[in-house]
Design brief:
The complex is a heterodimer. By secondary structure, chain A is of the alpha+beta class. Among the domains of chain A are: 52 residues, Uridine Diphospho-n-acetylenolpyruvylglucosamine Reductase, domain 2, CATH 3.30.43; 107 residues, Enolase-like, domain 1. Chain A is globular. In chain A, 28% of the residues lie in helices and 19% in strands. By secondary structure, chain B is an alpha+beta fold. In chain B, helix 2 crosses helix 5. The mean pLDDT of chain B is 95. The chains are: A alpha+beta, B alpha+beta. The interface between A and B is large, with 38 and 40 residues.
């Protein structure tokens, strides 16, 4: 492991200054992804700025009825929070579907958003990766793509994609469906970024996962008051029954009155470079009858532009029908539930 | 730049000097000779390094020692009182819940964490009613909650028996 300096500032402001002043410095939160990357050589920072005790570990009620989740709140505490379980059950389910009990005790809310792709080639420094080393190429395009993207990966003139990695978070999928807002503090002041705009699509610069600037710190994630979220769920499809990343996942919330869908929130995990808000599916669902035809039409609308990979060692075209089936089943079950 | 840190390990205060790159797992095993937590994958995928860190089950192969100065660590070795085994360790013996034993200290620490978390009413991914205050630790729940601890010998069925036996008893 490359040597680094570990510092523990007295305040979040000092931590921000330390990272803003040094392009070779990074924040350390729960460490579950970063410490692994230090071992793998994927991350080679000169300085780790330790956030322990510097970010909020509280889930607070907001005046508008929403929740403010401190960046230091651990995944297990958030999943166990009675307000999350009651008002945003899809979020609790997503958190509980992620990682293991031990890792949920370590991982934080801010760190969960900033974890990096588990693309096997990104994590293997002996293979080319445009995300690790811009311009180097991409081993995944012709490789093992079971966990790779089918949505949102732009192609260049030659039809090649710069990056087909997926964002691995479960937590972020319902959060993006629920219009969560990321609160940031930085060297130039505070700002708030909708979670749907926080993670980037790869475009021609997959090295940047998010819109964060050097030295900017996630301080909290706000959930707006959202009555429809009380009837929400998270369905994760994976190769093992537990402790595995998603092949595809669906976070959904629907409100049905007299057989008509009056509100719908849908997002996908495991299929794109960011948690994927399925706005086209939502448009089809709102105002439509709560029927199988509607659910299928919603899935078809969202998946119309899917670009699965066809590789010699196994592509990921299976994810299109898998996601279609997962979405329609999830919507049917939600709509049939008694409110 | 090395750092001086202090840890409380299985009830004993220990001071040591570590390179910042040292994981808590290596600090325990290589610096302090505490070999109950095992190094399996060293990448947070197998659970054999599980200990109770400040009261919670944690993978210490993914924890830097310098980031946990002042922490209280309880390993499987420190769970019992004197010569008396912890009820979870006793249950592992009674249920024959291991073969080679390498993953066992991590399994036992994880099981203690599972029982505490269930007592606190935390749901899991298979809990039927997320809003329920009480958790019923049936076999399905135990398997899900223990899924972060792999056993290459495949002693899972007996591990679930062991945790069930304690879960149905009265251990807190």
């Amino acid at each position: 492991m490359k040597p680094f300096v570990h510092v523990r500032p007295d305040s979040a402001a000092d931590a921000i200054d330390a990272v803003a002043a040094d392009p070779d410095a990074v924040f350390l939160a729960g460490g579950t992804n970063l410490v692994d990357h230090l071992k793998l050589g994927v991350a080679t920072p000169g300085t780790l700025v330790d956030l322990r005790g510097l970010t909020s570990t509280a889930v607070e009620d907001l005046p508008d009825g929403g929740l403010r989740i401190g960046a230091g709140v651990r995944n297990s505490d958030l999943a166990g929070d009675p307000r999350v379980r009651r008002d945003y059950p899809g979020l609790a389910m997503a958190l509980l579907a992620g990682a293991s009990g031990q890792l949920r005790n370590q991982a934080t809310t801010g760190g969960n958003l900033l974890q990096r792709t588990r693309c096997a080639y990104f994590q293997d420094v002996t293979t080319p990766c445009n995300k690790r080393v811009p311009g180097q190429g991409c081993a995944a395009r012709d490789g093992w793509t079971r966990y790779h993207a089918i949505l949102g990966a732009a192609q260049d003139a030659a039809g090649l994609r710069h990056c087909v990695a997926t964002h691995p978070s479960d937590m972020a999928v319902p959060m993006v469906a629920f219009d969560a807002v990321v609160q940031l503090a930085g060297p130039d002041g505070d700002r708030a970024v909708p979670l749907g705009e926080f993670h980037r699509l790869p475009g021609d610069d997959p090295s940047r996962d998010t819109v964060l600037r050097q030295g900017e710190l996630v301080t909290a994630v706000d959930l707006p008051p959202l009555p429809v979220a009380a009837r929400s769920t998270y369905r994760k499809v994976r190769d093992r029954a537990s402790y595995a990343f998603a092949l595809v996942s669906v976070a959904a919330a629907v409100a049905v009155e007299d057989g008509t869908i009056t509100d719908a929130r849908v997002a996908f995990g495991g299929v794109a470079h960011r948690p994927w808000r399925a706005t086209r599916a939502e448009e089809v669902l709102r105002g439509a009858p709560a029927t199988e035809d509607t659910y299928r039409a919603a899935a078809d609308a969202e998946l119309a532009d899917a670009t699965p990979l066809d590789t010699e060692v196994g592509g990921n075209a299976f994810k299109v029908p898998l996601l279609r089936g997962t979405l329609t089943t999830t919507l049917r079950r939600l709509a049939e539930e008694r409110p | 730049m090395n750092a001086d840190i202090t840890l409380t390990v299985d009830g004993r205060e220990r001071s040591l000097t570590v390179d910042p790159r040292t994981t808590l797992l290596d600090a325990l095993r290589e610096h302090l000779g505490v070999t109950s937590p095992k190094k399996g994958c060293d990448h947070g995928q197998c659970g054999s390094c599980t200990v109770l860190l400040d009261g919670r089950r944690t993978l210490i192969c993914l924890a830097l020692a310098v980031a946990h100065d002042g922490a209280v660590v309880v390993t499987a070795d420190g769970l019992g009182r004197g010569d008396e085994l912890h009820p979870v360790a006793e249950a592992f013996l009674d249920a024959d819940a291991y073969q080679c034993g390498y993953c066992t200290p991590g399994q036992i620490c994880s099981a203690v964490g599972v029982l505490d978390e269930a007592a606190d009413g935390w749901p899991s991914a298979v809990t039927p009613d997320l809003a329920a205050d009480e958790v019923v630790l049936d076999r399905h729940e135990i398997a899900e909650r223990m899924s972060g601890n792999l056993c290459r010998c495949g002693a899972y069925a007996h591990i679930v028996d062991a945790v069930s036996a304690v879960g149905n008893g009265a251990v807190r």
